[in-house]
Design a protein that fits this description.
about 25% helix; globular; about 25% strand; binds heme C; 3 domains; alpha+beta; 17 helices; about 475 residues
Length: about 475
């Protein structure tokens, strides 16, 4: 008997020596021995985006933390929020096409687009070999599919813990009227944007996905405004069910580029406060046309955010022999990809005005001047339609929607247009007319959209670029 135990022990010992890895991973479930916990790779105080927001506990007085739950009492804020890019940060076709690429750290992408713990079916707890492309995850028993679909929902910005570690709502004023506990800290609430819009550390992917820093741009321009001052301006509405009358409240619209994520977005954008973010003008004399553009209202560069964005300035002239010609200028960053390298940046700084001049030879009888704020060029939009491995569990109908992308996804919004004729002089289009033309993109193939493939056009000669 003793011998038998000895032999068994020797066999186990020998097995352990030969297959330690197998023994640890399969019998002891100790995979984490070769793994890096997240807080070793990312700094929890400066790189919050690598960690999920706790959302299992519901504040006292509430039935849930979904936007739908908040809407029972905050209907008007809910209605504003529900039309935003934030509410659609998961279903966004471009996002879905991008995360389906194999070389992307999908869990990290999702961390900014669906950052609540209960929005995640699986939770990343560590990394294999310190590699962000090899997350070690475990299933989440508190996964809530309906909450997931709300993407950047109320709880992302408002759900916190109070000093007794109880779930509470972060608010700017500390209202005593609310049925739920409120932690009053306006500064902290206004700073929530930084988590996602100004990530710190090393860029996530060699191709710079979502690595933008508008706060640095603001600081370098000595702007004192915060993101919320400009992106959540005050409007007048009933803050809650307890409000007897409308009061001044922060707009939950976040219009930004004013390029909606679906064509339907154009139907409401005027009511949500669309005003073109730039000013422009033009002038014609016998020997030249001058066009202007100015970054009127933004404290950061324009365009900002995603480096693919640009303004397309398009001047189309018609001479007395009915010959038309098109002249364009592009304002934005220029990058080489794989890996990313910046090779140009002619964006407009805050309040900067820029002037372009077109020398004239023949006699011009009419011209039009258009400025398109462009999210994505036609070629890259075309690549999106080829996306493989799209995840129907994250966004239903996604495969079908990607196939008819050109009918669903606006690439640009017209910010300015004027028409000049000899008889009528200059006529500027109003906001509604600009939006109607933006909507018309739906009927035009990507490759034929005039702003979408600027590289194919001759450029407008640039004359002055002055900071004013
Ligand atoms: C992206 C972050 C974000 C999201 C998402 C968000 N809020 Fe807010 N909310 C804020 C900020 C920031 C303020 C405070 C602005 C200020 O006054 O300083 C605010 C203010 C409020 C206020 C105070 C009253 C007011 O209007 O000024 C209420 C109530 C409120 N939010 C409810 C909601 C509800 C309900 C939702 C979801 C339908 C929601 N919020 C989604 C960031 C957010
Ligand atoms: C049962 C009704 C009810 C529900 C549900 C509810 N709230 Fe409130 N909330 C209120 C009332 C009432 C106030 C006080 C409004 C006032 O002062 O005019 C309030 C105030 C707030 C404030 C402002 C706090 C401050 O600093 O003054 C925020 C932010 C807020 N709620 C967010 C939320 C969010 C997010 C949800 C969903 C997770 C939610 N509320 C769900 C009734 C509700
Ligand atoms: C949890 C991460 C997160 C937080 C917090 C957050 N945002 Fe966003 N924001 C996003 C993402 C992701 C998008 C783009 C979604 C898309 O395009 O699919 C976005 C879009 C926007 C846009 C629209 C950009 C455009 O393309 O026109 C604006 C403006 C904006 N956010 C401002 C803010 C402000 C202001 C705050 C703070 C009150 C804030 N965001 C907080 C992640 C966040
Ligand atoms: C002084 C006002 C102002 C401040 C401060 C400001 N923005 Fe903007 N922002 C704008 C305007 C105006 C636009 C519209 C630009 C356009 O049409 O492209 C814009 C556009 C954007 C966009 C869309 C990208 C683009 O260029 O189209 C994002 C995202 C954004 N802002 C985020 C932020 C964040 C995050 C902060 C804080 C760090 C911030 N903004 C601070 C005025 C401001
Ligand atoms: C640190 C937070 C963060 C991470 C991580 C992140 N994103 Fe984003 N993403 C944002 C924000 C903020 C915006 C909106 C920026 C803007 O409009 O300027 C955005 C916008 C986008 C957009 C829309 C771009 C546009 O022009 O409308 C796509 C697509 C996208 N993200 C894909 C990804 C992918 C793929 C990953 C993973 C490789 C990823 N994101 C990781 C914060 C993040």
């Amino acid at each position: 008997m003793k011998k038998l135990i000895q032999i068994t022990l020797i066999i186990i010992f020998a097995y352990l020596c030969i297959y330690p890895q197998w023994f640890m991973t399969n019998l002891l479930n100790l995979d984490s021995i070769s793994s890096t916990p997240l807080h070793k790779k990312f700094n929890p105080s400066t790189q919050q985006y690598a960690f999920l927001i706790e959302s299992n506990k519901i504040p006292k007085g509430l039935t849930g933390v979904k936007a739908k739950d908040c809407s029972v009492c905050h209907k008007e804020i809910y209605d504003e929020w529900s039309q935003t890019t934030h509410a659609h940060a998961l279903s966004d076709l471009q996002f879905q096409a991008e995360i389906s690429k194999k070389d992307n750290p999908k869990w990290l992408c999702l961390n900014c687009h669906i950052p609540l713990k209960s929005q995640r079916k699986n939770i990343t707890v560590a990394l294999k070999n310190n590699d962000i492309l090899k997350p070690i995850s475990k299933p989440n028993p508190h996964f809530d599919k309906a909450l997931q679909q709300e993407a950047i929902t109320c709880a992302v910005c408002h759900l916190v813990k109070d000093k007794n570690n109880q779930a509470a709502i972060l608010g700017p004023k500390g209202s005593k009227l609310s049925p739920h506990p409120v932690v009053k800290d306006q500064k902290r609430l206004q700073n929530v944007c930084i988590r996602c819009h100004q990530p710190s550390g090393d860029q996530l992917t060699p191709n710079l996905l979502c690595w933008f820093h508008p706060l640095d741009e603001l600081k370098s321009n000595q702007s004192k405004d915060s993101c919320v001052d400009c992106h959540m301006p005050k409007n007048s509405k009933k803050i809650s069910i307890a409000s007897l009358k409308t009061t001044s409240s922060s707009a939950h619209h976040w219009l930004g580029s004013a390029i909606p994520k679906t064509y339907k977005g154009y139907d409401t954008i005027l009511k949500r406060g669309f005003t073109p973010s730039i000013t422009a003008s033009s002038n014609i004399t016998t020997n030249k046309i001058t066009v202007n553009i100015q970054n009127k209202d933004s404290g950061h560069h324009l365009p900002s955010g995603d480096p693919e964005r640009y303004f397309a300035l398009i001047l189309t002239t018609q001479d007395n022999k009915n010959k038309t010609s098109t002249h364009v200028a592009r304002i934005g960053q220029t990058w080489q990809w794989d890996p990313a390298k910046k090779i140009g940046d002619n964006r407009l700084k805050p309040h900067e005005a820029r002037e372009f001049e077109l020398p004239l030879k023949g006699s011009i009888i009419s011209y039009s001047y258009e400025i398109w704020n462009t999210r994505l060029n036609g070629q890259n939009a075309g690549y999106m339609t080829l996306a493989k491995g799209l995840d129907e569990q994250l966004a239903s109908n996604i495969n079908q929607d990607i196939k008819q992308l050109h009918k669903l996804y606006p690439l640009a919004t017209l910010m300015y247009k004027e028409n000049y004729t000899k008889n009528n002089g200059v006529i500027k289009l109003n906001s509604q007319q600009l939006l109607d033309l933006s909507k018309d993109q739906k009927n035009i193939a990507f490759r034929d959209r005039i702003y979408a493939n600027l590289e194919n056009f001759p450029s407008m000669p640039r004359v002055t670029a002055s900071d004013k």
